[in-house]
Amino acid sequence: xxxxxxxxxxxxxxxxxxxxxxxxxxxxxxxxxxxxxxxxxxxxxxxxxxxxxxxxxxxxxxxxxxxxxxxxxxxxxxxxxxxxxxxxxxxxxxxxxxxxxxxxxxxxxxxxxxxxxxxxxxxxxxxxxxxxxxxxxxxxxxxxxxxxxxxxxxxxxxxxxxxxxxxxxxxxxxxxxxxxxxxxxxxxxxxxxxxxxxxxxxxxxxxxxxxxxxxxxxxxxxxxxxxxxxxxxxxxxxxxxxxxxxxxxxxxxxxxxxxxxxxxxxxxxxxxxxxxxxxxxxxxxxxxxxxxxxxxxxxxxxxxxxxxxxxxxxxxxxxxxxxxxxxxxxxx
Amino acid sequence: xxxxxxxxxxxxxxxxxxxxxxxxxxxxxxxxxxxxxxxxxxxxxxxxxxxxxxxxxxxxxxxxxxxxxxxxxxxxxxxxxxxxxxxxxxxxxxxxxxxxxxxxxxxxxxxxxxxxxxxxxxxxxxxxxxxxxxxxxxxxxxxxxxxxxxxxxxxxxxxxxxxxxxxxxxxxxxxxxxxxxxxxxxxxxxxxxxxxxxxxxxxxxxxxxxxxxxxxxxxxxxxxxxxxxxxxxxxxxxxxxxxxxxxxxxxxxxxxxxxxxxxxxxxxxxxxxxxxxxxxxxxxxxxxxxxxxxxxxxxxxxxxxxxxxxxxxxxxxxxxxxxxxxxxxxxx
DNA sequence: ACATTTAATGTAAGCCCTTACATTTTTGAC
DNA sequence: GTCAAAAATGTAAGGGCTTACATTAAATGT
Lengths: 332, 332
Prior knowledge:
The structure is a homodimer. With about 325 residues, chain A is of the alpha/beta class. The first copy, chain A, has helices spanning about 5-10, 15-20, 30-40, 50-55, 70-85, 100-110, 130-140, 165-180, 195-210, 225-235, 250-260, 280, 295-310; strands at about 60-65, 90-95, 115-120, 145-150, 160-165, 185-190, 220, 240-245, 270, 290, 315-320, 325.
């Protein structure tokens, strides 16, 4: 059942059928109705491939994310997919992994699918890796508009939406110091742009409150909970009265550490997670966390995308403020 | 840059170029090498649309899941995507939501994409909804092979891979009764086929151990943790000395309930979750759980799919055993 | 060296749409 | 009732690939 069959049945030309399919204003309502009826009757749906060939687009956007099994990214992908679908776009998903080369391959492969736009969920590398990630992202941007969620590079055709990680971390650490905390541990799990921004906020807040930035208080550990707990237990001489983490899993590890050490939370140690995930409410005591408002980020990204795809100008960087969610691991 | 350009540059016909692209054995290695070199040089990649038109396939499989932001499904999707990619297939993701009509729409829409196969992650409805879900799944199966992960219907073209929820639940409840537990609460969060199987295992184990099946001990609550905790706190007259749940979130709720009530776990109450998610290790005390070996399920599904797509016969139902993961909320 | 397979390549007919341009029909002004 | 302008429809040329079939080149046998 193709366009010719429908044209024949409806007694019109294929051009007219095509116009009906695309709801072109150049067809009288009368014929539109008639052709539509016939399409329904015969369960006709246009062949997407032929359509793609003609239009050079299949209303599809690519989503690359390092790992959808990660809670935070899964939430983003879920929202993005639903949202894009309301605009009539399908999503091709690519879980790239975290390695640089894998990401490059992902971009290369997904571009072959002639997607209309590309969404990169999860941050690009900061510091040393920055230049490299700029390169492959720029490569993609030469073909289609690219949208970074929680990442930032400056490049034509790349649009970035990020939560204001710097600011919230700055504010949070200030609040901790004002509450009298002096030795604040910073737990982080990646070298992404977002994590770097969080660290920047942490360090500047310390400086502005006349506290020293101690490198031994900045701990990198990408495995969550148990690994973090054990890691902290090992470092016997390490003293701290507060923890801020770049992810809830890390913070829960700190809570487990405190329990094992016989320290009470929040009295002895204040602990603050990030992302406000289900782990935060699962944790005992329930974990104070920072909500990065991922749905808002995603919504903003999708809105921007629709603007760009419709030829409207869009700002290349948009920042969304985070908010602190007080639970029981803090006492300010 | 299209196939004609390459043909011209290589001094061969487009047919030959096409054969090189498809690695046909009908081309001499010499020309293959030459043509490949030229394709590389010119960054040629075949147009997927034209390709799809000709082959009527784009090496794409559809994945429909109610909600990727769910931990368990996210894990499955991540694994499926990675695994399918190694076979050269891309994935179109559709998060349908849990409503019947939404699932029907999802199937309808995703079929228009001329996918090569369809993966349904997350269970179909059991009981009343069973017939209905059979209908739309059968509809899909008329167009492409369909693979259900953790669901079961009997229908031509539908291949089911499920964990042995009945058996593990039966065994677990037996173990609890043997450890002297008499009033075992069954917490469930959906009316899916999987949940129904779990309940069947639960009830039969009770019967086989001469314990009554009390309907007041079967509690349905789809919201996790806090909602479950509060729900249990409300039911003041409800007594139980063990809990089995169809999901870790529910079980964590039960743990929170016990803590609030001043009951100790596992002494006063044994609690067992399902899915062995991150919540289980986050929970305090760490939650014993059942691992449904979702990766194994997914692997089996993908293997089956490749068999089917290559025209080999495959069993319509495959069952994967689960395994119990002992942590600190049980004492047997 | 010549006939006969077999391997390698080429030709051309689809696959099913979109759309610029050409043609026909309708509308409205006079 | 004309005629010009506007609206509706049709014609036909792609778009880039696959593949059956036709053709030519290479390999094998005698």
